[in-house]
Structure formats: C-alpha cells, structure tokens
Hints:
Blueprint: H1 11-30, H2 40-51, H3 57-71, H4 92-106, H5 140-154, H6 160-189, H7 200-211, H8 219-235, E1 237-239, H9 249-252, E2 258-262, E3 268-275, H10 281-292, E4 300-305, H11 311-324, E5 327-332, H12 333-343, H13 348-361, H14 369-384
Parallel strand pairs: 3-4, 4-5
Antiparallel strand pairs: 1-2, 2-3
Helix pairs in contact: 1-4, 1-6, 2-5, 2-6, 3-4, 3-5, 3-6, 6-14, 7-12, 7-14, 8-12, 8-13
Amino acid sequence: MTFTNSGTLTHSSMTDLTDLLEEFYKDVRSNPDITLIDDNELRSKIEFICRCITNKAPIRFLMACLLGKLDDPKVDIRKPYTEISGKGTYSGRAYDEQHVEPFVIKHKLPTNSTTAFLTPAFRNIDRTLTTDLVLVGRPRLVYTNTLELLDLIQSSKLDPKTALKEIIRFLLIIKNENETRMKQLLRELKYSDDTLPLSSEQIVTLLQQHLSSKNSSRLPVLMVAAAYLAVKDRIGETPLPLQSHTAADKQTGSIGDVEVTLINDDQIITCYEMKDKKVTIVDIENALKKIGTLEYRVDNYIFITTDIIEIEVDQYAKTVYDKSGVEIAILDCIGFVRHFLHFFHRHRTGFLDIYQSLVLAEPDSSVSQPLKEAFLVLRKTAESDK
C-alpha cells in the first residue's frame, strides 16, 4: 500500500485495487446464488448489513476496510483511521472514496452515494474498533455485526477476500430484486390511451400520500423541479441540475435546493429552499447572506415547507423586498403543487410523469427503494380507480 503526502493512494495502487474489485464483481455475477460462506450465522450477519434499508453506511465502511486489508495484510483492519495511535493504521476513507465509491456507482449497487466515514457513527474515531465499542446509530444490530466482522477478520477467522466478495454478491442480488420489482410495477402502470387521466386534485392527493411516507424529505425538491421541467418551454425558465440530497451548499456552491434560470442563461433568477420544519426569521437572514455573495441579483427566494407557516415570520418575509430588492416568500408544499396543477391543468400528466422519472432516478440514499415503490403503487391504485 502506497500513499502520497495528502493521504491518497498512488496511481499504481489505485489501478490494482480497481481491477481487483472488478474481478470480484465478475466472479459473483456469474453465479450470484452460490454463497461463499457456509456458516449460516456469519452469512446472516453480512446479509443483514447489506439489506438494512434505514442505514447503508456500514456497507461501504466494511468494503473500504476489507479492501485496505487486502491491499496490505499487515494493517489492523480495526484501525481505519490514521488518528489511532500505534501500528497498523490506515486511511479507510481513502479506500472508500477512491475505490469503493466509483465501483458502487459504476455498477449501481444499493449503497450510500457518499463516504461512510463522514456519517455520525464513523466520524472522528481515535480508537481501535473492538467489539465492546458502542457506535451511536440505528439500528444497533447493524453496527454490532460490523464490529464483529472486523474482529473475525483481524483474528483470521474470516478471509477478507471471501467477506468482500460475499458483500458484493448480496448487493448484486438486492439490486436484481429491486430492478425486477420496479419493472413489474412499471408494467402494471401502463394504461391505454382512452383511459381518463388523473385530475389535478387526484394528483394532489397522490402526492400528499407519497409525502406522508417515511424518509420523504427529498420529495418537495423533486416536486418543484418537476413543475418547472413540465412547463419550461412555456415559461422560458428551467431548473439547474439538482445537487445531491446530502451535499452541503458550501460544497456545491449552490444557494438553494432548486435553482431556476432563464433558458440559455446561467444566472439564477429564482431559488427554492425546502424545509421539513417551520421557517424562521434566522432562515430568512441566512438566505439573504447567501444571496448577498452573488455578483448578480436573484429576483426571488422561496421557502417551501411541509410544516405550518407562522404569521410573524411570513410578515417579516414581506418586509425584505423594500430593503434588499429580493422578494422572499414562504409557501406550503402541497399548496404550491395544487396551484401549479390548476394553473397548468393541461400539463398535469406531463408533470406527474416527470416527477415519477425524477423519483426513480434518485439514488437510494436520497429516495429509498421502498419510497420509489410506494409511489408506483399509489399511482397504480389511483389510476385503477378511474
């Protein structure tokens, strides 16, 4: 294993490890139903980690640690942080970001789209990851299994190559299962041309139901983006490509969740920021600070919330225009969609189709597989009642 002064792997090491991951993927893809681990309890622990819908960070964490061990058998796999004292440490994050991330993205494997080492449980650890360590996060069992697997590998009771290939095998199985279910749901959604399309209010009800699902905080972003995409040729405005759900504004240079420009222009004229809680005066002040850093003027900055809108905050927003020249508004998410659908009534089905495409195109870390499937089921039910 060779690192540069910045902690990144050298080009030769990167090439070898990339080829290794591709070799493992090729091996398991040819026979995905054949397990590499005979021990049922051990295999179940790996499967639990891979199938955990609510917390996928341990998958990439394990893959990075296993790759580090394969690259240099002398390291202690339980020490994937250079901050840990003693011998045998290594940079797990380097393996994760430089090898695991491009690999899982290339093959569209069901893991998080960003590094596991910046998630709360795996951030800033300065001690060996022994089985008595309590990692804060849910579900607890996914972290317990992760630490136990690291311990088994370090004690030579589990081969790191076998463990990594088994993880890739389960991820491939889950990916295939997800794709099969999605294809079936999409086939069932197809309707004949003479079927009456959903009304604007029926679409509103459908979106309300989808928004009430668990872990739906990304959906308002997709609703607003779909609205603009559905009528961009009519209004001459279009949203910029959406940033990752987990990316911070400082990292991306964006000033909001949905940024709208005139077609064939790159200057933002309208910006939307989504909130799943009450909008506060502090939120408005922070928005004005972001806008103030731009070399051009944004016409209006709109908060979309799924919570109640407090009268005093709404009144304060109305006073901003005279002082800054930027109009600030706070809108209810469903209210925004309802008004749009009635205003552009003939584009309602196009809007719904675009929203569906955006939902299905999101990485599972932003819109989970169950949330994607829930929309298709809700839409099928709504259209079957016609």
